[in-house]
User: Fold Serine/threonine-protein phosphatase from Stentor coeruleus.
Amino acid sequence: MSESNLLELVDPVTIVGDIHGQFYDMLRIFDLGGSFDSTKYLFLGDYVDRGSFSIEVILLLYSIKLNYPKTVFLLRGNHECRQMSSFFNFRSECLYKYDLEVYDLVMDSFDAMPIACIVNNKFIGVHGGISPELMSLQDIIDLQRVTEPPRSGLFCDLLWSDPVDNDSGQCSEKFKSNEVRGCSFYYGVAAVNSFLKKNKLLSVIRAHEVQIDGYKMHKWNGSTGFPVVITIFSAPNYCDVYNNKGAVVKFNNNVLNIQQYNYTVHPYILPNFMDIFNWSIPFVIEKVLEMLYQIVKTSDEEIIENSDKKVVIEYNHPKAEIFRNKVRAVSKMMKMLKTLREDKEIIMQLKGLCPDNKIPRGLLQQGRDAIIGAVDTFNKAKEWDLENEKRPQ
Assistant:
């Protein structure tokens, strides 16, 4: 709690966006960003959830912070709270790798994180963006931050708001309700220009949204004007399916540069920290179904081959049709289990993008091509993942 809600830094500074438990990609960031002795690092939040190495990310960042308290700075993101980390996988990861006490201690540390930062007296770094309740920088300083972020108000908006998704920055209202997030607002060029002018700033640097190139320059003031909003996202190949690049912002001698990078291969982790027994169940079930199918199929054929007239009449009885339906059902289930076994990894990736970890109804029966096609592009991945962008109730 020795740091203010609103930090102030001067370059050289490397600004990092969402990491989301991608530990090995974070190591790549340190290779690109510069030495901790000579370069400051400003992280914009979202260290945990979605990836499988969130606790490793946090423990390493805290270790570096303890050793370099004057050059490493960690802002709070919308996932640094109890609600989001329980809804997603950070809490379960902590319970699997450590225990509830570790999780609770990490949550307490999240409560103490600063909220925003002024860089070179010209840029404001924050996780989400601005708010209709943000008139001056003093409003951020005056916030009570040691709490769970509320569902509305300035604190919520700083973590959850988004710029409008169009090239002009035009918005039907200065601040428009954000239906995708289920809370906070969209802000456009009018709101941003008003805030920047009042506070004598040049641009908002924020994270919070995956970008195909790892960053996006919102040039709402024309091609010759400086971008009034810069979105930076530092988790390449987000969720192992987006195929996006990661990026960081590097300030040095008042010059801003964007450094892009591709994802780093990480050790394979069974989905949802599953043990090998549960992982193998589809293989076992498939073999059991094959045996059952052969049994019922053989019985069906024997009835036909060995029947006299009386038995044939009985075979045409409604009970015989029920028997045939059971054979067909077993056959259909065998196909689904075969798909599960052969494409289990990509199915688990797809489940991770869908609400409640459930893949779309009927997709398994469509076969392998349909499953691969569901996650083969950035835009399709964003479409599947849209529900996960909303704040849980």
Notes: The CA atoms of residues 76 and 196 lie 22 Å apart. The chain has 15 helices and 14 strands.
